[in-house]
Design brief:
The complex is a heterodimer of chains A (about 300) and B (about 160). Chain A has about 300 residues and is an alpha+beta fold. Chain A is about 35% helix and about 25% strand. Chain A has three domains: about 45 residues, Uridine Diphospho-n-acetylenolpyruvylglucosamine Reductase, domain 2, CATH 3.30.43; about 120 residues, Uridine Diphospho-n-acetylenolpyruvylglucosamine Reductase, domain 3, CATH 3.30.465.10; about 120 residues, CO dehydrogenase flavoprotein, C-terminal domain (Enolase-like, domain 1). The relative contact order of chain A is 0.12. Chain B has two domains: about 80 residues, Roll (Ubiquitin-like (UB roll)); about 70 residues, [2Fe-2S]-binding domain (DNA polymerase, domain 1). The longest helix of chain B has 15 residues. Classes of the chains: A alpha+beta (about 300), B alpha+beta (about 160). Bound molecules: flavin-adenine dinucleotide and FE2/S2 (inorganic) cluster (2 copies). The site of flavin-adenine dinucleotide has 30 residues of chain A, from strand 2, helix 7 and strand 10.
Chain lengths: ~300, ~160
Amino acid sequence: MKPAPFEYHAPESVDDVAGLLAEHGDEAKPLAGGQSLVPMLALRLTRFAHLVDLNRVAALRGVSRDNGSLTVRAMTTQAAVERDAEVARAVPLLARATPLIGHFQIRNRGTVGGSLAHADPASEYPAVALALDATFELVSKSGTTRVAASDFFEGTWQTCIDAQQALVAVHFPVWGGRCGFACEEVARRAGDFALAGAVAAIEVDDAGAVRRAAVGLFGLGPTPLRAHAAEAELIGEPPPTPDGYRALGQLAMRDADPVDDVHASASYRRRVGAHLVARTLASAVEEARQAHDPPGAARAR
Amino acid sequence: MKMVTVTVTVNGEPRRASVEARKTLADFLREDCALTGTHLGCEHGVCGACTVLLDGAAVRSCLVFAVQADGADITTIEGIGGPGGELSPVQAAFRDAHGLQCGFCTPGFVVSVTAFLRDNADPTDEEIRDALSGNLCRCTGYQGIINAVRLAARAGVR
Ligand SMILES: Cc1cc2nc3c(=O)[nH]c(=O)nc-3n(C[C@H](O)[C@H](O)[C@H](O)COP(=O)(O)OP(=O)(O)OC[C@H]3O[C@@H](n4cnc5c(N)ncnc54)[C@H](O)[C@@H]3O)c2cc1C
Ligand code: FES
Ligand code: FES
């Protein structure tokens, strides 16, 4: 199998990336880890006259902590995220979602920017970014734009990035206080895309009541989704009982919109999704209640 | 057809060739370097048969274009053993634990396991199974392969 012929570009700066995308418009496509794009080219599901390889742009790699957020540059590999102690401290949900992505050979090449730009609804990172209200930084020749996660994912494999733009970084808010996080999914085999999955982030106050709640769903609709109704139900309340968690799982499925396909029926996805929401919420709330300090502060001592 | 020049080091030897940009690293290794130990099962990232070490990292060579590897250091299955053809500890463990039958998947498993044990010399069974999840075998049923990884890990620890 061979992709259709293309012209290969290997720019070394973000300016040159933007220049090439401006010049070639929708004839060109950025190439990141290639773990989704190359299979699609090989199967001839898509073709482009120009590929703009981002791998030689050093400025697109790495993780840094600014005031209240963690910046992950687009070409940071999933393997680098998995190993990064700062990610584990600042955005535990991102760290915990990472081992669920594919296999270690995939994570050695696959990137954070690529996963988000590819926007597979069964992917882990889009649900994490949506749940944590991450901000996406896009660059084109005409400048830099910042987009909220709630505006970024437009459909299956569809984002608001236009052909002239490259995703350069994602900013994840760092949660302070007594927090807990969890990510769980069901897949046929380890490393497969999830049939359904859920992420949860919880902050509790001094009395143990829920102050902040975010629930992200994946594999449960055309895009990653937030379980808004379940989040609202939790806030201000003491920790739910086991029955309460089950009810919240059911409630979360009101915001889900899964499809029937060869891998699983929509009703199966809903049943699994409700359980996963219940489980991730229970473990995130429990972790938050055990935490006496922000996770970063506790571990730094 | 526009050609690009690729200069890489494969198993310690410098290699240079002029190829189409769309040529995968796997095809470059097989066709331009005549190293046919790197196998192609699916050619779209699913089976792991084509795994090589690219600057030390285990990757699927069917999902990297040869031109992207320009300047890189590559190890294929041919470079895993000793210079006189001696088996590496991982290869010896695959032989001893019946970790292969037809052998088609074996290069990918051996290269993957070599990288895995380098980074995690004393893995748990769960870690072994997780690490093997990216390679498919149609013959063995995997038990011999899991035993081979255990054996290689023990040999390494000794
Ligand atoms: C066997 C296998 C199993 C997998 N399992 C999972 C899984 O369980 N979960 C999961 O989430 N993923 C999985 N993946 C996909 C993998 O995570 C991909 O790495 C990821 O989806 C795409 O990232 P990439 O860096 O490889 O991007 P590429 O494949 O290079 O690009 C993907 C798309 O994003 C665009 N793009 C990439 N970077 C940018 C940028 N900076 N700006 C603008 N556009 C950009 C490209 O143009 C392309 O359209 C799997 C892949 C394989 C082969
Ligand atoms: S041939 Fe590369 S993964 Fe199957
Ligand atoms: S030994 Fe035949 S495919 Fe694995």
